[in-house]
């Protein structure tokens, strides 16, 4: 581009014959000014191209990170949906436990109660993967996201995820403390509900029946089961909020 302008300028100079004695000097002065202008134009073009290249590179970087973030959030949504389904199953199993406690404790009911009670304490949770998001924030890439709606949605998702995780931790801690407390005080022996225990089926069933026949121990069992139900209900509700409200649109399976 600069060579093109220089050729035009030189042609004009050749055609412009000086009419004054100082014409030769004027010609050189005009030539020098032209060179300066060409240099300035060249610099401006270079700066513009550089800025364009930098902007294109930044846009590609933002798009790449957003796509990685979509993959990350999508995987979160899959894990959370799995935990929602698991929590629903645990709630159904817990309700069945309460029902069994008010039925004759025959051999079949006893075996079912032991299995379901053992599974009742197996809580599962999930923590959102923040690696890509934190990298985007720390590198400044996140601030370059132009669509404010998506930007706000992403930030809110991770803020709520942290907040909900803290709430779930409290419920899980209280549930496990309850379990440990009734075990350490001797109210309920874990050995009778341990699948790896060497106790016979008859011994297990006799123990379960004795627990249920004791008004005090039956109440402890019921409270423990209800505490578990509350925990699973909270997990299900909070993960449902994240999936249905906060990551709507983001967890769509990326290509």
From TrEMBL:
Keywords: Membrane, Transmembrane, Transmembrane helix. The chain crosses the membrane at residues 28-49. The lineage of its organism: Bacteria, Pseudomonadati, Bacteroidota, Flavobacteriia, Flavobacteriales. InterPro entries: DUF6090 (IPR045749). This is Uncharacterized protein. It holds the Pfam family DUF6090.
């Amino acid at each position: 581009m600069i060579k093109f302008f220089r050729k035009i300028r030189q042609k004009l100079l050749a055609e412009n014959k000086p009419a004054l004695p100082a014409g030769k000097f004027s010609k050189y002065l005009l030539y020098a000014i032209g060179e300066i202008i060409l240099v300035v134009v060249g610099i401006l073009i270079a700066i513009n191209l550089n800025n364009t290249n930098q902007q294109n590179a930044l846009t590609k970087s933002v798009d790449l990170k957003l796509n990685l973030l979509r993959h990350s959030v999508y995987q979160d949504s899959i894990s959370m949906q799995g935990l929602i389904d698991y929590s629903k199953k645990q709630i159904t199993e817990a309700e069945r436990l309460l029902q069994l406690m008010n039925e004759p404790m025959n051999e079949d009911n006893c075996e079912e109660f032991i299995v379901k009670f053992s599974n009742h304490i197996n809580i599962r949770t999930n923590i959102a993967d923040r690696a890509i998001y934190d990298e985007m924030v720390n590198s400044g890439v996140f601030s370059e996201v132009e669509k404010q709606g998506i930007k706000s949605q992403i930030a809110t998702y991770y803020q709520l995820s942290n907040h909900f995780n803290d709430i779930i931790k409290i419920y899980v801690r209280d549930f496990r403390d309850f379990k440990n407390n009734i075990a350490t005080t001797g109210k309920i022996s874990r050995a009778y509900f341990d699948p790896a225990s060497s106790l016979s089926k008859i011994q297990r069933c006799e123990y379960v029946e004795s627990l249920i026949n004791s008004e005090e121990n039956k109440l402890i069992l019921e409270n423990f089961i209800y505490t578990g139900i509350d925990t699973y209900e909270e997990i299900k509700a909070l993960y449902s909020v994240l999936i249905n409200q906060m990551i709507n649109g983001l967890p769509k399976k990326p290509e």
